[in-house]
Amino acid sequence: MFKAEGKIHEQERDVSKLWKNGEIRISILGIENQTAQDSDMPLRVISYDGASYKQQLLDKKQKKRYPVTTLVLYFGTEEKWSKAKHLYDCFEVPEKLKPFVNDYKINVFNIAFLSSKTISMFKSDFKIIKRKVYISLVPALVISVIAGLIFFNVLR
Predict the structure, then answer these.
(1) CA nearest 32: which of 69, 73, 68, 1?
(2) CA-CA-CA-CA torsion for 152, 72, 66, 105, nearest 10 degrees?
(3) How many CB atoms lie within 10 A of CB 114?
(4) Residue of 95, 133, 83 lying closest to 111 (CA atoms)
(5) pTM above the 0.70 mark?
(6) How many CB atoms lie within 10 A of CB 17?
(7) What is the per-residue pLDDT across 134-148, written as a single tens digit (0 to 9) for each?
(8) Torsion angle (degrees, nearest 10) of CA 76, 11, 107, 52
(9) 3-class secondary-structure state, position 47
């Protein structure tokens, strides 16, 4: 939740998971599903990530803090993602300010354009689901949950 223009607004991630290696918590993983490109995606992702960090600050029971990782799963089949991937792409930053403004980068995965080599690294049924994206889009929520699990498997 955040306040803007005197009103309380709610923001929610599409999917949020805890990334654990055994019993050890490694990171918080956010997954955002996109069927259309959004030039403001870096601004949206930084707000979701910031909210996750704020939640960690407010949780008095939590003894350790964790990094937040967000994956944007783009399901468009016409073209690869060509909109903003960096905060600097969202507005003009004068050269004199650049040393003081962080250029936040988002992680976009073009699901319909994954290479055969990348697909072969998957250790689950996502190989089959990914191929179906060419034919008809599988509901994004189902794929995002599977993709989150795959992301962990590929990094092992």
Answers:
(1) 73
(2) 120
(3) 17
(4) 133
(5) yes
(6) 18
(7) 444 444 545 555 566
(8) -160
(9) helix
